[in-house]
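Exercise: predict the structure of this protein bound to manganese (II) ion.
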Amino acid sequence: MHNHSTSSDGLLSPTELIELAARTGVDAIALTDHDTTDGLAEADSAARHAGVTFVPGVEISVSWGDTTLHVVGLRVDPEAKSLKDGLEAIRVGRHARAERIAAAMAQLGHPGTMAGAWALAENKAMLGRTHFARHLTEIGAVKDIQAAFDKYLAKGKPAYVSHRWASLEDAVRWIKESGGVAVLAHPGRYKLKPMMRDEMLADFRKHGGEAIEVVTGSHRPEEYSHWQRIALEYGFLASRGADYHGPGESPAEPGTLPNLHSSLTPVWSNWAH
Ligand code: AMP
Ligand code: MN
Ligand code: MN
Ligand code: MN
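Solution:
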């Protein structure tokens, strides 16, 4: 229930992603590109072809105070006006942000990274840090994507540029108004202390968030039981998703993560096929 394509920062086209999933033997797959629904139509038709159930989704970038959160919407309608307009509004500004990242990288002795990242972004409107990380890896400035984030691009590192994304309230509202269900993506990634974490989860629920990811390629396996406990404690539905970005770049391929624990209610439990 969480995968990327070339419409944002994934390496496979929507069709290639669906074909990979079909080969892996999944019975359902979601496409959840960052801040765009551009790939959904292609993925939907590829899924019909491959006989796989397709779940149209999106992963919305959110600013919650100084913390960037990601909220996945599942079963969204890409034609819904508030979702469409909202996503467009948060995409604006990615280009200027990329220029600032490139300027910081130039200061650090790596000129030309804007052109490099640009060339790697199929969907130019979705130019992001992953494209910079891939370019820095390609030119040998770092050994891999993870090192690019650890050394330059992650929050607190010298080429990090803060950016104002959607509010949590708006992101959840757009998802709900488009008929979808809001799922907090990889809650373990935000490194919030327990009090802030509780405040964030309470805010998410207050605005209409219904589920959290428990089993995800963006959690270490030893984190699963922790977020399982939190889901049960808060009464959130649970989701599972690879957060797949492409061959060689993700710890898990679609359909290969363990099942959710039987004590959890999966977010898809009441979906009719
Ligand atoms: P952006 O929306 O441009 O800020 O890029 C966010 C994307 O960068 C995420 O969806 C991940 O694909 C990737 N990313 C963010 N932080 C890290 C990290 N610490 N290590 C590896 N990839 C990361
Ligand atoms: Mn990504
Ligand atoms: Mn994410
Ligand atoms: Mn993701």
